[in-house]
Design brief:
Layout lengths: L2 E12 L2 E12 L3 E5 L6 H9 L6 E6 L2 E2 L10 E4 L11 H11 L4 H14 L15 H13 L5 E5 L7 H18 L2 E6 L2 H7 L2 E6 L2 E6 L1 H6 L4 H6 L4 E3 L2 E3 L4 E4 L7 E11 L2 E8 L6 E6 H7 L6 E6 L11
Parallel strand pairs: 3-8, 3-9, 6-7, 7-8
Antiparallel strand pairs: 1-2, 1-4, 4-5, 9-10, 11-12, 13-17, 14-15, 14-17, 15-16
Helix pairs in contact: 2-3, 2-4, 3-4
The structure holds adenosine-5'-triphosphate.
The site of adenosine-5'-triphosphate has 11 residues, from helix 1.
């Protein structure tokens, strides 16, 4: 696979603060890559640098093999969607989506066909005549995607596009984005601080922290083989066991003491649908931890608060430095 976007040696300072700290990063053609990290880690700065809306102090950026470092956004052949999409309020859905094609002076017939096709793709066929105020938040973001895709950009850049929507709509839209990407195949970079969104949607995830990229890999790579404690903790729940980080679903509970197990008191049993979370207090006085077990296992164990149970890890990822 060739790389659609390359970034090398990108740094960006705001005073003493490093928003980007010598970032090297590539985005393979046709991939859906998520930039994932906590607030302030530099995700938006990196995305905006690809778009040409921000300019790193140092470094080079190429898109489709062309050096775009000094090229303005409108000449980079990109589509961009923000969290709060600025729709033209006085224009219909059709006119909003057609906007980029109109300013490129494409023939009317071509514009109509393209807009109809895109509205079909984003599930807004029949909404052509509506105005942005007559759409739900999720529909507005889908219109924004149609508008960004209208000019056939080489790259689609999405900055928390579903961030302002409620949880259920977000979930629907992310599976919709996944399917859209399978059909349209445009190289996409998605900024999100939501690990579940990244794991669900992206085929590649770059985890950012303090202006640096900590690890790049497939969702499985990152979840199962995190490069360090930061990535492990950021990508899912963790429990600390003898100073080592483990996933709560890699903990087993038994009624009998086994060679590698330790005794703990059951503090709380929470039934969360398919899973059961058991909050435990080790008798050794070590930090409390939670185990995630199945409903079936919980039924067999029949745990109650205050009882003693024996805990062991079935798997501990090998990560270089556990957090202190
Ligand atoms: N114009 C600016 N002036 C000063 N500091 C800035 C400016 N733009 C961004 N920053 C700082 O750079 C850091 C990185 O910002 P950025 O928006 O890239 O982070 P992010 O990972 O996208 O976070 P968020 O999810 O909160 O947007 C933040 O600490 C931010 O305060």
């Amino acid at each position: 696979m060739t790389d659609m976007i390359t970034i090398s040696g990108a740094s960006k300072h705001y005073g003493d603060f490093k928003a980007l700290d010598d970032v090297d990063f590539t985005v393979p053609s046709g991939s859906l890559t998520a930039l994932l990290g906590p607030s302030g880690s530099g995700k938006s700065t990196l995305l905006r640098s690809i778009a040409g809306l921000d300019h790193p102090d140092t470094g080079e950026i190429t898109i489709a093999g062309v050096d775009v470092t000094g090229v303005p956004p409108q000449q980079r052949d990109i589509g961009f969607v923000f969290q709060h999409y600025a729709a033209f309020k006085h224009m219909s859905v059709r006119e909003n989506v057609a906007f980029g094609l109109k300013i490129r002076k494409r023939p009317k017939k071509e514009i109509k066909a393209k807009v109809d096709e895109l509205l079909e793709v984003v599930g807004l066929a029949g909404f052509q005549g509506r105005y942005p105020a007559q759409l739900s938040g999720g529909q507005r973001q889908r219109m924004a995607l149609a508008r960004a895709l209208a000019v056939d950009p080489q790259v689609l850049l999405l900055d928390e596009p579903f961030g302002a929507l409620d949880a259920k709509v977000r979930e629907d839209l992310r599976s919709w984005l996944r399917r859209l990407h399978e059909n349209v195949h445009v190289t996409t970079v998605l900024v999100t601080h939501d690990q579940e969104e990244a794991l669900d949607v992206a085929d590649r995830i770059a985890v950012m922290n303090k202006g640096r990229i900590e690890q790049v890999g497939s969702p499985d790579d990152l979840y199962d083989r995190p490069a360090n404690a930061f990535v492990m903790s950021f990508l899912g729940p963790v429990a600390k066991l003898n100073g080592q980080l483990v996933r709560p679903h890699d903990l087993r509970l038994d009624r009998q003491q086994l060679p590698a197990s330790f005794a703990a008191t059951v503090e709380r049993v929470a039934h969360l649908g398919f899973e059961v979370r058991v909050e435990l207090r080790p008798k050794s006085g070590a930090e409390g931890l939670s185990a995630q077990i199945t409903r079936g296992d919980a039924k067999v164990l029949d745990l109650h608060e205050g009882e003693t149970v024996y805990v062991r890890a079935t798997r501990t990822p090998e990560i270089p430095a556990p957090v202190g």
